[in-house]
Amino acid sequence: MRLVILGAGESGVGTALLGKKEGYEVFVSDFGSISEKYQKILNEEKIEWEQQQHTESKILNADVVVKSPGIPDKAPIVKKLHEKGIKVISEIEFVYQFAKNTSIAITGSNGKTTTTMLTYHLLKQEGLNVGLAGNIGESYAKQVAIDPEKLFVLELSSFQLDGNIDYNPHIAIITNISPDHLDRYEYKYENYIASKFRITMNQTEEDYLIYDADDEAINNWLKNNQTKAQLVPFSLTKKFEKGAYLEDNNIIAMINNEKITVPVAEIAIEGKHNVKNAMAATLVAQMMRVRKQTIRESLSNFQNAEHRLEKVAKINKVQYINDSKATNVNATYFALESMNTPTVWIVGGVDKGNDYDELMTFVHEKVKAIICLGIDNTKIINAFSPIVDLIVEASSMEEAVKLASKASEEGDTVLLSPACASFDLFTSYEDRGTQFKNEVQKL
């Protein structure tokens, strides 16, 4: 069997290692350049590869093709594969047939990284043999090649779900849905929503779908479509016999008539959205028979992901917060919602069809100045100039942080929460967040 892998990043190289272990003839092709680290791994394993080109004669003879989630379906080589009827799948779809244990899969427009890390943390603290993969950490393929017995907690983006055909997680979570990546979905919100719900399409009556029952897009989908999975909702406003809800500032989670109570005040991560993330993770932990004591302890000692509402430093009594991972409007909505001091907001980057209307109330209430950090800031300036007096543009992180420091005074917060992708001025949201932290330390 010939396995061709398009894209030689973390997931592509991991898939190559697993493919070789499982006896496939493997070829890796990347239209960009392959980093030296990955070239070395492929060479050591004697796996054939190419970069900066796609040689059709070596690709169109594949039995199966695994493509990187970053490569769109409209890429010429993918179109040719489809025309020839060659199966093009995701890393997740390829790997899951070799994993010996069930998996827990988490998707959503926002909150999926925190919920994935929190779920992993809860299961690990209980001593389960658990792995963390998908859109986060080391590749799922590479980890299954090493230990196929592990129980995996997978963070899945809509792009990863698009390549799934038979993949079936035992427990699926949809944290929320808001417009994102619409450029990949013909600018149709319903296409993006359908993509998220691919997480449950192969689930059976023995599986579970945990979801935010306060989310309009999720509720509408469930009203009009069917899943075989058992539905397990969580909410800040409604109560359930099976699911999680709030009562007197406690999270109550009920599964199989077993109840656990966790005071919101004891959760390590702040903000309403994180109460929901904690609800989802708690429900998984209960399903996996984690002890109540472990659940409570783990929720109180959890450390969130870097670049997600990360407190960087307090300088001249101004708090600097790095939320570079907020690459869409909805993520920034949660960030602004959790601010309780006057805020200098650093925003901007590559706009993915953003609509800033939903931020207006928070911006009006909390934001005293805006620093635009992007090549084209017209849309942001037009949206917010009627309600924010001070809006300035910066062309580098150094300039943005200096301007923010000038615009802030004792008791304020400077928040980097861009609501946009980072590729105009930075290599990634991590690069953007790291530069922010470095510039803050220089103040």
From TrEMBL:
Entry protein name: UDP-N-acetylmuramoylalanine--D-glutamate ligase
Function: Cell wall formation. Catalyzes the addition of glutamate to the nucleotide precursor UDP-N-acetylmuramoyl-L-alanine (UMA).
Top EC class, one word: ligase
Family: Belongs to the MurCDEF family.
Family matches, as NCBIfam families: murD
Segments forming a coiled coil: none
Catalytic activity field: UDP-N-acetyl-alpha-D-muramoyl-L-alanine + D-glutamate + ATP = UDP-N-acetyl-alpha-D-muramoyl-L-alanyl-D-glutamate + ADP + phosphate + H(+)
Location relative to the cell: Cytoplasm
Pathways per UniProt: Cell wall biogenesis; peptidoglycan biosynthesis
Keyword Ligase: yes
